[in-house]
Design brief:
482 residues; alpha+beta; Bactericidal permeability-increasing protein, domain 2; Bactericidal permeability-increasing protein, domain 1; seven-stranded antiparallel β-sheet; 23% helix
Length: 482
């Protein structure tokens, strides 16, 4: 039907090509921009610290043993075993954007507490043992994280450099003679700190890499229905500036199994310099226009309307008696018959985004049939129907939903099988059909919405949507739940 395509229109998507020819297509068709702000990075830092802290708690310090000469006792054999991390603190951390590269994560004033057992043997026969606690303070970690896209068009992160230093350490021994403290303090303090220092950066790299399985949960292909699917993938690696991480995306609907580009290009746009939300998503009118192209090409923008779809309270019925009031020859030639209307688009509808409004212009035909007793259809006339529809768009949970209303319509006669008649006399009937049948049916579907791309169990909060010139802008914060 004339406005049915709007049901398939409110969503966003990403697409990536890798060859030079394909890259030309993606550059031509970039219609989405996503901006991750400093506020979003700060939320990511908070989540990342919890992961890094858990990783550092899992540090495995190998057992140590050796011999040292201690005056006047002589050689002392020693061993440290069962060393475990009992506490990790990361009180100070920050995340900064590195233009052109990625993200730098810095951790300062961190501390690690370790507990273990000690054992010594000296003078060949004397043995002693006990436990110890090691507290390391002044731990600093600095790692650079690259943000790119993988071969599937999903985001990926990796640690490209890391430096860790361990500050002061204090050891408290439980049991044993006092001279043992000096032995361990002198020879083992540094060894323990070095062992910890070597473990930190690999674990930080593991924590960064652990993000990738979550990033891979982004659906790169999402089936909409039997006609269309959406691809969610990055066009290229992100652009990192001093203020944000920006993604250039391609937004387009495709017929299932046949990814034919729409025969038009998106209008270039850029996101406004807003930063109060964690995430901004700019979705151009290209996406909804590509949806119209896909569904029109599939022949899905059509609807048969029968009398049982008209409200029972309406005095206007879809039968030859009602239409005969306006076109007498219909009731004369086809007395006492029910009728059926077929509303379908004749070309791809055009959607325009202007500030605070989405407007659609659609050209359709309305074919009227008389239903014969043997159920065959006798054509009566074909009308040209031009409509203008306004749409409202909103975010509901993780979906973009909408509603539409009829602005205006115009009728002209295309073909008549019952002779000439005044087309304007049918205005009231067609307005009833659109307002009472087509629009409500459409709004029920639009209210279901279309899912936005999500990573893991992502939830949008504090979300606002604006309709701007040639695109709509979603500003939102994000929460991840387990």
């Amino acid at each position: 039907m004339c406005v049915l395509f709007l049901f398939h229109s409110f969503t966003w998507q990403l697409f990536r090509h890798t060859s030079r020819k394909q890259q030309f297509l993606t550059n031509r068709c970039i219609s989405h921009h996503v901006k991750l702000t400093a506020k979003g990075l700060e939320y990511g830092r908070q989540l990342g610290m919890a992961s890094i802290q858990q990783k550092l708690k899992s540090i495995k310090v190998p057992d140590m043993s050796g011999k040292q000469r201690v005056s006047p006792i002589g050689k002392v054999k020693y061993s440290l075993s069962n060393m475990k991390i009992v506490n990790v603190g990361l009180p100070t951390s920050s995340v900064d954007l590195v233009p052109g590269t990625g993200v730098k994560l810095s951790i300062a004033n961190a501390f690690i507490s370790l507990h273990g057992n000690w054992r010594v043997k000296y003078l060949r026969i004397i043995k002693d043992s006990g436990s110890f606690d090691l507290n390391v303070k002044g731990l600093t970690i600095a790692t650079s994280i690259a943000v790119k896209s993988d071969e599937t068009g999903r985001p990926t992160v990796s640690s490209v450099s890391c430096a860790a230093t361990v500050g002061s350490a204090s050891i408290k021994f439980h049991g044993g003679a006092s001279w043992l403290y000096n032995l361990f303090k002198k020879f083992l303090d540094k060894a323990l700190r070095n062992a910890l220092q070597k473990k930190i950066c690999p674990l930080v790299a593991d924590a960064v890499n652990d993000l990738n399985p979550h990033l891979k949960t982004l659906n790169v292909v999402a089936k909409v229905d039997q006609y269309a699917e959406i691809e969610y993938s990055m066009v290229s690696s992100p652009t990192v500036s001093q203020a944000s991480i920006d993604l250039s995306l391609k937004g387009e609907f495709y017929n299932i199994g046949k990814h034919q580009e729409a025969p038009f290009s998106p209008t270039a746009f850029s996101l406004p310099p807003q930063n109060s939300n964690m995430l901004y998503i700019g979705m151009s009118a290209y996406s909804v226009n590509s949806a119209a192209f896909v569904y029109n090409k599939a022949g899905a923008l059509s609807l048969y309307i029968t009398d049982d779809m008209i409200p029972k309270s309406s005095p206007i019925r879809l039968n030859t008696r009602t239409f005969g009031t306006f076109i007498p020859q219909i009731s004369k030639r086809f007395p006492g018959l029910m009728m059926k209307l077929l509303v379908e688009t004749v070309k791809t509808p055009v959607i325009t985004f202007v500030p605070k409004n989405v407007t659609t212009q659609a050209s359709c035909t309305v074919t009227a049939y008389a239903i014969q007793p043997n159920t065959t259809l006798s054509p009566l006339f074909i009308l040209n129907l031009e409509t203008s529809v306004s749409g409202q768009v909103f975010v509901s949970g993780m979906r973009v939903a909408g509603a539409v209303s009829l602005n205006e319509m115009g009728l002209t006669l295309r073909t008549s099988y019952v002779g000439e008649f005044q087309v304007r006399s049918l205005d009231s009937i067609l307005q009833l059909v659109l307002k009472a049948v087509v629009i409500p049916k459409l709004n029920v579907q639009l209210a279901k919405g279309y899912p936005l791309p999500a990573i893991g169990k992502m939830k949008l909060v504090n979300t606002q949507l604006q309709i701007l010139k040639d695109y709509m802008l979603i500003g939102t914060d994000v929460q991840f739940t387990r």
